[in-house]
Amino acid sequence: MTSRTTGLQWPDIRCGSGFDAHVFDPQRPLFLAGLEFPEEPGLKGHSDADVLAHALVDALLGAAGLGDIGRHFPPGDPQWAGAGGSSLLAATMIKVRTQGYELMNADLTLIGERPKIAPHRKVMAANLARALDAPPEAVNLKATTTEGLGFAGRREGLAALACVLLIGRRHPE
Ligand code: MG
Fold this sequence. Notes:
By secondary structure, the chain is α+β, with helices and mostly antiparallel strands. Helices cover 27% and strands 29% of the residues. Magnesium ion is lined by residues 20, 22, 45, 54.
């Protein structure tokens, strides 16, 4: 694409950011990046409340100029009740590719005191990449606590941030 300010040809690259948060619900299973954590309290939500998958969906939709997760997967829509994060991601990536974009990379941060994801990080990142039909190296996953601050610090719930870069398939002319 041509830069409007310089007239130079640039690859058609677009960034997107996503954020999600869910409150703990001990009656539900915990799914993060498609992996179940059987010993941990789950998260409340209309679908499986996978905060990592949801933040990533929002980042992808944002980068592609397609709005947000609520527009494409409205709460209350029976089609997506209890849906797994992986199915939302797969459906999102179809929309992104229909717009002419491919994923370059995604970087995600889980925010919370627990669970500790270090032993599972590789599997979780691979789950996300598989759902996106992207190579494993395209997805990076990390985690942080808030040192006791805020809702995540009080162990009331979990949050996640995601950042993606998309590249247009028709680049440059
Ligand atoms: Mg959510």
